[in-house]
Amino acid sequence: MKKLIFTATIALTAFAAQANDLVQHKNNKPATFANADVQVINFWAAWCAPCRKEMPDMSKWYAKTGKKQKVEMVGIALDTQENVNKFLREVPVKYPIWRYTGTNSRQMMKSFGNTVGGLPFTVVRAPKCGHEGRILGELTYEILDAAVKRAQTACKK
């Protein structure tokens, strides 16, 4: 039990340090997660072909389903402000975009459970009940919808 508490404390400390390096893309203000029942956190970069491919489906899902269900969804760009601006002009999205401004994106992604460091990477979590699902690779509308439903169901048990 002590080991579990110690591990959880380390993870939360690492997460808090990494969260200081997250800013809202539109205004460069610090970004913080809301207290939503379900959160979808997608890590991406403008140079990542699967990331570029999945974002229209994710945006469509958020506009049609996620907003109505009060799911918090953010895309965290591991890229420069200029690259993100250019990408979003070409592929506008309906959900908030944040940027990671720190110096160790691999370590930051590890704090979210991405041990490989690959992109795209998505975490679907329900913080209130401790559910957390991770998806490495390209999402589709259907995969995202199923992952959110699993998180919602986990909290009803």
UniProtKB/TrEMBL annotation:
InterPro entries in the cross-refs: AhpC/TSA, Thioredoxin-like_sf, Thioredoxin_CS, Thioredoxin_domain, Thioredoxin_ResA/DsbE_sf
Residue span(s) of domain Thioredoxin: 8-153
Biological classification of the source: Bacteria, Pseudomonadati, Pseudomonadota, Betaproteobacteria, Neisseriales
Protein name per UniProt: Thiol-disulfide oxidoreductase resA
Pfam family, one: AhpC-TSA
GO BP of this protein: cytochrome complex assembly
UniProt keyword list: Cytochrome c-type biogenesis, Disulfide bond, Redox-active center, Signal
GO MF: antioxidant activity; disulfide oxidoreductase activity
UniProt-listed Gene3D superfamilies: Glutaredoxin (3.40.30.10)
